[in-house]
Design brief:
heterodimer; A: alpha/beta; Rossmann fold; six-stranded mixed beta sheet; four-stranded antiparallel beta sheet; 17 helices; disordered N terminus; B: 288 residues; MetI-like fold
């Protein structure tokens, strides 16, 4: 960590989702040269795909329409039979296992949800537990518990029929049903694709919250790179015939797209998106900023501003909360500084916020910096544009070094 | 009957149905009729008004027939009239025969057509579906009379010849509705079920068939009514039924005989149509 760039690089892997580094985790699903070739076609739909999916991660398969990502997903639970290669779950070769029994071990969520309209919500959720012959009491408890997990009140919803639900509620039930028998693996095929943007955002957030607790191994298909960046611990960007163009953490893919295809696919604004993955943290020193209290003499504050070469002084109240930006010119006037001087501090970020939020606040801030406050609201330091710049450049450098290291080994 | 009068009482009043879940069902776009339908009609449908009034109508018709029968003064009538209309030896046994023919032929239709329809919607036999439907179609296109004669030449006289002929005749609606009903089940629902580990058989019995029940039942109802109507021709090849009475009414030029025979067929047909409608309403899976 360099001295000047005080923003700590912080990845999803290490803190926000509380997981260990990907390298340390066991492989849950291993695809070995899996291939799907439909009779009478020259090109295989999926050509020799090899991929390890680690325990407890969300791996997102993302790619343009028709690239075979859904086919790939359906090869894992053998909804589509592979024509070549092998599939392992927990080191067990399931390429020839009984597909019906295999699927009862794997949760499956599809975009169209597919709830059984003639069964109540509770009966829908009980589908797999019933097939596994759980006893009735356990099933009832489980379905109530799962409804609570996905944010639906069991008292209200358990005896309803699917047609009485909104799209968002139906997909919550879809997720609960997939979790029915507590499978270790979940396959999700554009689960939030048919839901309006606001509800989708909420479902995504809730799903990430649930996943932080249940820690399933999830393969998630989407065509939306932003959803992939948001949901994925790792992202596999697929080209034609499901060929993997790049598979890595979202921040590394954003910082270092390996080729033109990936760069095109992630599109413009990848640098800005990268700011989502870096946060303002407490254990590092942010830039100081000249501050003053109402009791301070203006001349002293002026001297501090001059020393720090800033045009503004941040006025703090008795609790050290930043309240006003006071321009240096006002300090020169000889008048006392009051709670009415300068302009109000509208933009500030808390410790733990992402650099993306910090940038947003910076853009609307009077002094073009984002004041950072501790949890209790007291002033901690400021984020400047140079911080963002350095953070981005270091992320790129680290990603590049990572790939160079990969090449040499 | 309290429910029926309640429904009638509500006709014409807007905005009183908020607390009536049965009515709200009818207002949902998924189950409600076309939106331009008059609101009283929608209400009537939601309350199954027709279903409740039908037995009343049938009972009234039976009463009228009974009064007419009594007014004929059979004890003093000519022998042709009296012997044809004797309840204990003619009309009642014929009604029973009629019902037997309709019952057995409908049962056979169900036993043959539903499994056939299931098989013809499964992948291995799917491609033969259109061909089989075409054959069943021609079965119905054949004049019923011709079909009866054809079976007469194959199986000889008797009730069972009629039953087999009617089975073939009424196969199509059930077969076609079974296939349409099963094909009409949302593929995504089946896909989700299979994806959770339902076997093909479980997907069929737990998802596809329950969801296809309304369509299949509609076909069975059509077949039943067809069979009750066609059983009137059973007398042609010695199968009995109410057709005998109608025929003697024609032959002997006794209008009362003709009328009583036809009215009894109508009562039987209406009654069974009502039973079919009941089944369609109450066997429909909840939530659909």
């Amino acid at each position: 960590m360099s001295d000047t760039a005080n923003i700590h690089l912080d990845t999803n892997e290490s803190t926000s989702r509380g997981s260990t580094r990907p390298e340390d985790r066991a492989t849950k699903i291993r695809l070995e040269h899996v291939e799907k070739r439909y009779p009478g076609t020259k090109q295989p739909a999926v050509a020799s795909l090899s991929l390890d999916i680690l325990e407890g991660e969300i791996l997102v398969l993302v790619g343009p329409s028709g690239c075979g990502k859904s086919t790939t997903l359906r090869l894992i639970n053998r909804m589509i039979e592979p024509t070549g290669g092998r599939i392992f779950l927990d080191e067990e070769d399931v390429t020839k296992a009984n597909p019906d029994k295999l699927r009862r071990r794997i949760g499956y969520v599809i975009q169209q949800i597919g709830l059984f309209p003639h069964q109540t919500i509770a009966q829908n959720i009980a589908t797999v537990p019933k097939m596994l012959k759980w006893d009735k009491k356990k099933i009832a408890e489980r379905s109530d518990q799962l409804l609570s997990v996905v944010g639906l009140d069991p008292e209200v919803y358990r005896d309803r029929y699917p047609k009485e639900l909104s799209g968002g509620q139906a997909q919550r039930v879809g997720v609960a049903r997939a979790l029915g028998a507590d499978p270790e693996i979940m396959l999700m095929d554009e689960p939030f694709g048919a839901i309006d943007p606001i509800t989708r955002d909420r479902l995504q957030n809730e799903f990430l919250r649930v996943q932080a607790e249940i820690r399933k191994t999830i393969v998630f298909v989407t065509h939306d790179i932003d959803e992939a960046i948001k949901m994925g611990d790792r992202i596999a960007i697929l080209g034609e015939q499901s060929v993997i163009r790049q598979v890595d953490t979202p921040e590394r893919i954003l910082a270092f797209p390996v080729d033109e295809f990936v760069r095109d696919f992630i599109g413009e604004g990848s640098t800005l998106k990268g700011l989502h993955f870096e946060t303002v943290r407490e254990d590092v020193q942010l830039d100081p900023y000249p501050t003053m209290h109402l009791t301070d003499r203006p001349a002293e504050a002026r001297a501090r501003a001059q020393e720090a070469q800033t045009d503004w002084v941040l006025l703090l109240d008795g609790d050290e909360h930043p309240i006003r930006w006071v321009p240096v010119s006002e300090l020169d006037s000889g008048n006392d500084v009051t709670a009415e001087s300068g302009t109000e501090v509208l933009a500030k970020v808390s410790i733990g916020a992402t650099l993306f939020e910090a940038l947003e606040q910076m853009l609307i801030s009077e002094a073009a910096v984002s004041p950072v406050v501790r949890e209790d609201g007291s002033f901690y330091g400021v984020v400047r544009l140079t911080h963002l710049n350095k953070a981005i450049r270091r992320a790129r450098l680290e990603a590049r070094e990572h790939y160079e290291q990969l090449e040499t080994t | 009957m309290t429910a029926a009068t309640g429904a009638q009482g509500r006709i014409g009043y807007e905005g009183q149905d908020a607390d009536n879940p049965e009515l709200q069902e009818g207002h949902r776009p998924a189950t409600g009729g076309p939106s331009h339908e008059a609101s009283w009609l929608r209400r009537a449908r939601a309350n199954h008004l027709g279903l409740k009034l039908a037995p009343v109508g049938i009972a009234l018709l039976a009463l009228v027939v009974y009064l007419y029968y009594q007014s004929l003064g059979l004890n003093d009538a000519v022998i042709q009239l009296r012997s044809s209309l004797e309840w204990g030896t003619k009309l009642w046994p014929q009604t029973l025969q009629h019902l037997q023919i309709a019952f057995w032929s409908t049962l056979l239709v169900v036993v043959v057509a539903i499994p056939l329809g299931i098989m013809l919607t499964r992948p291995p036999l799917r491609r033969y579906g259109p061909a089989i439907v075409a054959v069943a179609n021609s079965g119905q296109a054949l004049p019923a009379y011709g079909l009866l004669i054809l079976f007469l030449s194959l199986l000889g006289q008797g009730k069972w010849t009629v039953i087999w002929a009617l089975t073939l005749y009424a196969l199509l609606p059930v077969l076609r509705n079974t296939m349409v009903g099963l094909d009409g089940v949302d593929r995504n629902i089946i896909e989700a079920g299979r994806g959770m580990g339902l076997t093909r058989m479980q997907a069929l019995t737990k998802i596809e068939l329950p969801l296809a029940v309304p369509v299949i039942l509609a076909g069975v109802r059509v077949a039943m009514i067809l069979n009750i109507g066609m059983a009137t021709l059973a007398f042609l090849i010695g199968g009995g039924g109410l057709g005998v009475t109608i025929n003697s009414g024609l032959k002997l030029q006794q209008d009362p005989v003709l009328i009583i025979g036809a009215a009894l067929v109508a009562i039987v047909a209406l009654t069974f149509d009502w039973i079919g409608a009941l089944a369609e309403t109450y066997l429909r899976p909840k939530g659909v």
